[in-house]
Amino acid sequence: MRPFTLLISAIAIAAVPAHAQYSAAIEPALRYASMSEYNQSGSRIVTESGWLPGLGGRLAYRSGAWEFFGAAAVFQADLDYDGQLQNGRPYRSETGTRMSEAWLGLRYRVLDRTELVAALGRDAWRRDIKGSAQAIGLLERTNSSRLLIGVEQMWPLDGAGKLLAGASLVHAAPERLRIGFSGQLDDVSIRTRPANGYALTLRYLPEAVPRLSFNASVDSITVARSAAYPVTRDGRAAGQVTQPEHLRKNLTISLRYDF
């Protein structure tokens, strides 16, 4: 599934008058992304963090208590890289980062103000760690499928609008990671471990501007250390590589406009 396909479709359909049961939205956003890697003793060896501007889109169809939806978003910028070399010396750089995601799911209204949510998603993560005279650059491309199950609750705010809060559990299939070594070694493919995480969301819909909403979310997932994979140079053995245990956290704020 390509996240951009759904995003472009949402923007295009937004220009067309929608029937009552259909809806579309566009959502400029800003994400503070943080990623930490840990060695086998649990010590942190790498941290990446910084702000990523992004854009999201959404399509939905509601019929009675059911809503079927698709959503996608992409975020891109440089993150600060604070890590260390193999000899243990500190190393600081920048990581060109692109995070994209796409979801297909449904909601079911079980009570007047409560809905259950389930969705299947695809997460894509591109890291371009800039090299120097001390270290070669790395290009990592990671993809994984995800399952989300959660609940959302709505509270009316006495003429000021509505507040919606949600909490979800997320299960991720093993990541498929492709690593490039700036031509110094042959590219290698790695498969990581299954992972579990969570997502929390908050949405405010002001009564004065019913098509507009202010949104915030936090999500976190920890992926265990992978097995060791052989590395080659021109087809000859040159060592091994593993993907360390890593923790990904995101704080995302956005402004959503529903058409």
Give the secondary structure arrangement, pairings included.
Blueprint: H1 3-14, E1 22-38, E2 44-63, E3 66-84, E4 90-111, E5 114-129, E6 138-156, E7 161-172, E8 176-180, E9 188-191, E10 195-206, E11 212-223, E12 229-233, E13 236-241, E14 245-258
Antiparallel strand pairs: 1-2, 1-14, 2-3, 3-4, 4-5, 5-6, 6-7, 6-8, 7-10, 8-9, 10-11, 11-14, 12-13
Please characterize this protein's 3D structure:
The chain is mainly beta and 259 residues long. It has a single domain (3-258), classed as OPCA outer membrane adhesin/invasin (Lipocalin). Helices cover 5% and strands 71% of the residues. The chain has 1 helix and 14 strands. A 10-stranded antiparallel beta barrel has the order 1-2-3-4-5-6-7-10-11-14. A two-stranded antiparallel sheet has the order 12-13. A hairpin with a 5-residue loop joins β1 (22-38) and β2. It is elongated and about 65 Å long. Residues 10-19 have low confidence and may be disordered.
